[in-house]
Amino acid sequence: xxxxxxxxxxxxDSGFVAHKATLVNALSRVLADRVMVGDFTxxxxxxxxxxxxxxxxxxxxxxxxxxxxxxxxxxGNKRLRVTCGSNTSYLEDLAWxxxxxxxxxxxxxxxxxxxxxxxxxxxxxxxALNRVLPFTAKEDNRPVLQCVxxxxxEGKLTLVSADGFRLAVVTLDCDVEGQxxxxxxxxxxxxxxxxxxxxxxxxxxxxGDSLDGTSLVIDTELMRYRWRGADGQFPDYEKLxxxxxxxxxxxxxxxxxxxxxxxxxxxxxxxxxxxxxLNGGIVMSSPDDKGEVTMPADIxxxxxxxxxxxxxxxxxxxxxxxxVDFKLTDGKSPVLFAVDGYQLVVMxxxxxxxxxxxxxxxxxxxxxxxxxxxxxDTAEVSExxxxxxxxxxxxxxxxxxxxxxxxxxxxxxxxxxxxxEKVAVA
Length: 426
Hints:
Layout: E1 2-7, E2 9-11, E3 15-19, H1 20-29, E4 34-37, E5 40-43, H2 44-53, E6 59-64, E7 79-84, E8 87-92, E9 105-111, H3 122-132, E10 147-153, E11 156-162, E12 166-173, E13 178-183, H4 190-196, E14 200-206, E15 214-220, E16 223-228, E17 247-252, H5 253-264, E18 273-278, E19 282-285, E20 292-295, E21 298-300, E22 304-309, H6 310-320, E23 323-328, E24 335-339, E25 342-346, H7 352-369, H8 373-411
Parallel strand pairs: 1-9, 4-9
Antiparallel strand pairs: 1-16, 2-3, 3-6, 4-5, 6-7, 7-8, 10-11, 10-13, 11-12, 12-25, 14-15, 15-16, 17-21, 17-23, 18-19, 18-22, 19-20, 23-24, 24-25
Helix pairs in contact: 1-2, 3-4, 5-6
């Protein structure tokens, strides 16, 4: 539950008096959809719109109206009385709350002063969140990767996110200790709220739901945000960041984004791979040779070719902004975008050259593994030779029998058929 801290005066048991501008500013930073004022609950968007519409005074008074004599018109029902100048209204419980209004709550608290000891910049934290939230997993079957890891220690706060193909890491200065996994959906809208905050303090608290649970708490001069950490173990992300790079390109993300947009317009489908050739400069082209763009860039190292998904490349350049260091080891290893404490690792797409390189590297191992194969070939040849010899023997035997039969026939005596002489009969 969020906590809305308003500087003002208490009025009655659960009412308050405050500046209208202060209340409007505070309500605009609330992430929850329902606001609790004492025992009453109202919809945040409707209540904010109503307070903005009030005129006649810069002071607003909000109190329960159940015991007021002027509430005879409300038929005995408990309502919330709102007064601003000449405007007076009576809000029913659950006003501006519908069946589809999410059950997210924010409690209003009023104090004479609100002191926050900042330990991190609001703009810095907002920018860091915008750099990691786009790279969380969208699939429900990977709940841990749907979260952002907040890890603090040794004077540093690290925010980490990953989706299986990309890994984003931001490091900020913050003297706190703790760790928590926060679902990306719960962090929606917090970056815009932090941009308006003048003082921000981040901390970790033990969660009351479990003994080993941890909650992330962010305090501002008007709001207190609290998220319970999710269960699960985030992967060992440090091993996934390339330790060394042989080629580094210093490029302008704005110009690179324009080059990618021109190649995207030539693509026939939503997926548009981009081939990058680094050799003194950068040449971006489409795999089907429909177009290419040459960009000037400072290259350190040798020549390399790599293929990256166009949408991944666009999001990476947008997250980095300005000038960025584009670091590569080869054409098939993860590539690294680095700038001002921000690291983004992107997996490349395999090309025919990369696959051929893998086969060439694997070929010597295959040869060693198949050294006994010549024996198998020899055995096959021996079996074939024995079979041929058997066939030859059978053929010779058949020929010998045929010759013997021919000899027998030749040596067999023939009968002499002599003509009988005619004898005269007397």
